[in-house]
Design a protein that fits this description.
heterodimer, A: about 90 residues, alpha+beta, about 40% helix, about 25% strand, B: about 375 residues, 9-stranded mixed sheet, binds iron/sulfur cluster
Amino acid sequence: MALDPTQPYELHSQVALRPEPFGALAYHYGNRRLTFLKSAEMVDLVSQLDRHPSVNAALDSVGIPSERRDAYLRSLVALEASEVIHAR
Amino acid sequence: MLVDQLKTGLDAPICLTWELTYACNLACVHCLSSSGRRDPDELSTAEAKAVIDELQAMQVFYINIGGGEPMVRPDFFELLEYAIDHRVGVKFSTNGTKLDAEKAVRLAAMDYLDVQISLDGATAEINDKVRGEGSHAASIRAMENLAAANFGPFKISVVITRDNVTQLDAFQAIADTYGAELRLTRLRPSGRGADTWHELHPTNDQQRLLYNWLLDHPRTLTGDSFFHLSAFGEALPGLNLCGAGRVVCLIDPVGDVYACPFVLHDEFRAGNVRDVGGFTNVWRSSDLFTSLREPQSPGACGSCGSYDSCQGGCMAAKFFTGLPLDGPDPECVLGNADDALASVGSGSAPNPGPGHSKPVAVTLSSRPTPRSLPALTPR
Ligand code: SF4
Ligand code: SF4
């Protein structure tokens, strides 16, 4: 199922984020997958998802400009596939 | 690029191996840590728990526990439970001899736990030649116990040698029988493996066979240990880099921290978890790890078109075969190390030291090794 940016999302409760110089490592204790979040904005975005009524609102709040939204949405789709984030 | 950033180091390791004891009831001829006898200075239960506390604070999500044979430590389950309760997941490697039906049930009840059973031959004949008589049967028994306890997909870990590289499909079949995952790793000339490497490492034709098999079986776990094979063609999946001191490190039974599990040598010892500042300080600030995170010179590999994916191979393999660290891997698939390897004088490669081998293993493995290795009797 495709990620719907008008819907609310959140970080999976079994995922821990570890800050690193390049962004963060996300580790899922359930499926034991390690994922790289490759920028500080991405880390901000993912950790704020639960505070916004939709993915779009979270993107606004982090200040992602419209020309970079598609790239961010593609990354979020990948993060949903690896169960780092999910719809809430 | 991410790989470039990984090379400059992380705030905490991704792949941390912790050898809990040098004690082992087997005496494998290729043992990377020359294990056998317990070291009297091994970390106590309280010291080991303090290390786990530190790992939790650093957000090390999981660790690989090995040895020696970790299950011979009387506090093995206590430490396992302590780590898991502190959100430090565990994968531990075992020779399986102590993994009876009752322990399998106990393990199956734990979360965040992976078990890896060592098996170095699909048949007893091949396996027992390196791991000792009866060890194949012991590994299989452990697998049966885990399967009967519904542990789930455990891992079968194979060190690829000249003798077992022809058994890849047979290993896969064993894994399928038990619903297990197959993990293949590279033989490195570390520990007692330094004495046996020349006879046991795969030939270049066998390396090609292995490379093709890995491409055909992309779900095989390898710990990214075969990235030097990428020079055959397309890169294998995984991180193509030597992670030593950058994303990888080892804590040995007495608390010494090394750049990777395959370089137990003073030159690659960064500090000790008992030092002021503990493991955190060793990882973040030791001179050795700082220097390993600086850009490394490709040396003689610089003109090679495969350097991007091959990266000149494994530092440990070069070090213990006496080759320069900024040059080709001893198993360079293009043969670029063959001359240098032939000219390393006998006895001039760094000595991995006496280690913790029991007397019997030292006698057998320090003699010039005959073509077929003597079977060692487990004690
Ligand atoms: S030295 Fe070899 S085994 Fe160790 S991290 Fe580097 S490539 Fe891997
Ligand atoms: S010359 Fe160096 S980089 Fe090229 S294939 Fe050999 S080891 Fe790898």
